[in-house]
Amino acid sequence: MSTRSETDSMGSIEVAHDAYWGAQTQRSLQFFAIGEERIPVPVIHALAQIKKAAAGCNADSGRLDADLARLIEQACDEIISGQHDAQFPLSVWQTGSGTQSNMNANEVIANRANELAGKTLGGKQPVHPNDHVNSGQSSNDIFPSAMHLAALSEIDQHLLPALHALRDCLADIAARYQDQIKIGRTHMMDATPLTFGQEMSAFVSQLDLGIEAIEQALPAVCAIAQGGTAVGTGLNAPKGFAQAVAERLKEQTGLPITSAENKFAALAGHEPLVRLHGACKQIAVTLMKLANDLRLLGSGPRAGLAEVRLPANEPGSSIMPGKVNPTQCEALSMLACQVMGNDSSLSMAAAQGHLQLNVFKPLIIYNLLQSIRLLADGSNSFRQHCLQGLEVDAEKMHEHLDNSLMLVTALNPVIGYDKAADIAKKAWQEGTSLKQAALALNYLSEAEFDQHVQAKHMLGD
After folding, report:
1. Are 363 and 421 in contact (CB under 8 A)?
2. What pTM value is reported for the model?
3. Is the CB of residue 53 less than 8 Å from the CB of residue 248?
4. Which positions are annotated as active-site residues?
C-alpha cells in the first residue's frame, strides 16, 4: 500500500496516501482496534456542522482568514452531505472524551480543504487541523455538542415521524373496530368484555405519553456545551463564541440550538441524554407490550386465541410446512430488549463524570443513537408489515365472548356477588352456559337473565 508521512506532537507515522485523515487518526486505528462498533455517522456529520459554524464565527471575529474559513466550510459541507463517511473509521472504544474522533474530523477537514486549495495531503498548509479547524474549541466541548446535535437530528428526522405514523395507524385500527366486542383478559384469564377498538386505543394513549416524554426531554438536549473548551471556563474561545456558534448551528440545521447555561455541567454530566434515553426506554416498554399482546391474540391458528390474523410475510419453519410465525412481533420485542439494555449501560456511563469531565461519551452516544434508530426502524417495520395487514376474526371473538364465564359480572348488582359466583362455578364445573346454570339455581328467570347479561351493555361510556 502506498503511504505518505504525517506528523503530530508524537512524531511521524505512515498513512495511506489517499486517506484524508492524519497522524492522530492513524494512531487511534493502531492502538484501538477493538470490536466492530464505529463512531456513528450522525456524530460525524454533527462534528462537521459544528466545525463549519465555528469557522464562520472565527472569520466574523477576525480570528480566521475569510478564505481559509471558506475552504473549511466547503470541506465541512462535503462531509455533511455524506461524501466522506469512509474517512471516519474510528472505534467507539477509544478515548472517553472523543478526542480522537474530534481530531479525525480536524484532520479530514484540513486535508480536504488543502486539497481544494490545490495543495498536497499531509502538508497542513494553508489550513492547519488544530490552529484553524479547531480554533476556539476543545474535544471536551465539541464532542458533547456533537452528541446533542446528532441525537436531535435523529429524533427529528427519524424517531418522531415513525412514532407519529405508528400512533396514527393504531388510532385508525381502534376507530375501525370500535364496535367489535370481544372478551377482555386480566391475569391471562377471562375478564369482562370490551371492544377491540378499546383494546387498541390503549396503545394510542401509551404512545402519546411516550412522544410527550421525548418532546419534554428535547429542550435540555438543545443546549450545547460548545464554548466551554477544556473544563467549562471557555479558555481560548473568544468572547461571545458560544452564543455565536449556537446561533449559526440553529440557522444551519433548523434545530432550536441554544448555548448551555452552565458549561461545567455540560462537560461533566450528561443528564439531558439520560432523560432522553429514559423516554426511549418508555417507548420500548410500550412497543414490547404491543408486540406481546398481538402475538397472543394472533396465536394459533387452531390451538390458540386466534382473534386476529397477522400478515403471513414469510415461511415460519424449516421443518413444519405451512407454519407462519409472528416475526414482526418478535423483532419488535427483541429491539425493545436492546433499548432497555442500552438504558442500563448508558446510565452507568453517564454516572462516571469524574471531576470536570465525563469520559464515557462515545459509549453514551453510541447507545442513544442505536436506541433511537432501532425504535424508529422497528416502528416503521411493524406498522408496514404487521399492523397494516392485520385482520380481525370476528367469529372467533364472538365464540370466546359467548363461552366466557365472566359475563356473570353483570349480575353482581342484581343478585349479589356470592350468587353470581355460584352461577359461574356451576357453569364451569358442569360445562353448561351461564344461563343454564342461573336457571338451574333458580336465581333468575330467563327473561331477567337476558335483560341483564348483555355484553354490549358492559362496555362503559
Report:
1. no
2. 0.96
3. yes
4. 187, 317
